[in-house]
Write a structure and sequence with these properties.
Helix content: under 10%
Protein name: DUF2158 domain-containing protein
Largest sheet: 5 strands, antiparallel
Number of domains: 1
Shape: globular
Order of helices and strands: EEEEEEE
Amino acid sequence: MNIESIYIGLPVYHKDSASCMTMTVRQVLPTGLVVCAWIEHDGREAKKAFWPNELEPGALKFGGSIIG
């Protein structure tokens, strides 16, 4: 499933990650890249840019499986 609309604050997951770590959309760049942020295990905030087709909406992934 692809994300049809992206907005700031949207909870997302990386499609290929086995982790169930939730990321939050922080910014959409003019290039189309989506900057996401998450909290590392040590409490620091991490950020990384992804292409929209690499992301899944956060509400659809539970326990490492895509629901639907």
